[in-house]
Every structure is written in structure tokens, then in C-alpha cells.
Amino acid sequence: MAHTNEDHIKLVNGLVEITIDSADGYEEAAKDAESSRFKSLFQARAQERRVIVSDLQAEVRRLGGTPDDDGSILAAAHRVFLNVRDALTKGDEAVVKTVEDGEDHIKAKYEKALGDVDIQPETRRAIEGAYAKVKAGHDQMRDIKHAQQAS
């Protein structure tokens, strides 16, 4: 059965929520990171995620819906990022691993959304554009984690 507009709005708003959680998590990680390198990286990533949120909110409005403007406190991504606090006592390597776990979670959510065959083309393009940025962020954190493990 083809999706209704409501289904599309719900799908995109779900991505808005998890992306807000991710941005919030990066802001927390930036506050708590020890090295200035990670502090600035996490701040930049939080800002980038806020832009993705705006793009997705615009798509919800285009669909005639009301965009979500806050994350879901219960979201697994948010819980993962809260683990950053615990990781901080263990240094930046633990923070990077924790952030990367959050990245795995958000990437999986986007991939699940893109696996949906009934998404209308404009909505798919909006999600694909957001996913490309999310995946780049994920891959960067993965590469940093692997570099740390190798050293």
C-alpha cells in the first residue's frame, strides 16, 4: 500500500528527532572533550546536524506537516551520547568510541528510511541529501576511532 502524506511526514519527522538528538549529543561531547581538536570537531558536527534538521523540517513543511523541533529524550542516540559523560573519565578515545556508537545508530535509522520503496521522489531526495552528510560524519568518526586503536 502506497504511503499517504501523513506517512511521509511521520517518516521525515522521525529523522528530524534523531538528528536533533545527534546535534545535542555533539554539543554535550564538545563541552566535555579534553582536546581542542575534538572540541572543535564536535562543535562543527553539531552545527552541521542543525543544518540537516532545518533541511528536513523544510521537507515536512513542504509535505504540509508541522515539523518536530525537539528531539526524543528517549531516543537511543541520545542515550548513547549521554554515555559520553561516563566515557569522559576515560579520556578522548572513549569519547570517540561512544560518539561513533551514536553515529552507527543514526546511520542505521537513515538507511532504514531510505530502504522504504514507497517514498515520494522529492522526499527521498531530501532524505538522501541529509543521509550523505550523516554518513560522512559517521565515516569520519569511524576513521578517527580506527586511527586511535591503531596507535
Helix and strand layout, with pairings?
Layout: H1 5-32, H2 36-62, H3 76-88, H4 92-114, H5 121-150
Helix pairs in contact: 1-2, 1-3, 1-4, 2-5, 3-4, 4-5
Characterization of the model:
With 151 residues, the chain is mainly α. It has a single domain, classed as Ferritin, CATH 1.20.1260.10. It is built from five helices and no strands. It has helices at residues 5-32, 36-62, 76-88, 92-114, 121-150. The radius of gyration is 16 Å and the shape is elongated. The termini are far apart.
Kindly, what is the distance between the CA atoms of the first and last residues, rounded to a whole number of angstroms? 52 Å
Instruction: Give the helix tally.
Output: 5
CATH class: Mainly Alpha
For the record, the CATH architecture stands as Up-down Bundle
Global structural class? mainly alpha
Summarize the helix and strand pattern as letters: HHHHH
What characterizes the major β-sheet? none
Using only CA atoms, what is the Rg?
A: 16 Å
Give the averaged pLDDT, no decimals: 84
| Outline | elongated
- CATH homology superfamily name: Ferritin, core subunit, four-helix bundle
Query: Which ranges are low-confidence, i.e. pLDDT below 50, for 5 or more consecutive residues?
Result: none
Helix content: over 70%
CATH topology: Ferritin
* Overall number of structural domains: 1
Percent strand equals under 5%
Number of DSSP strand runs: 0
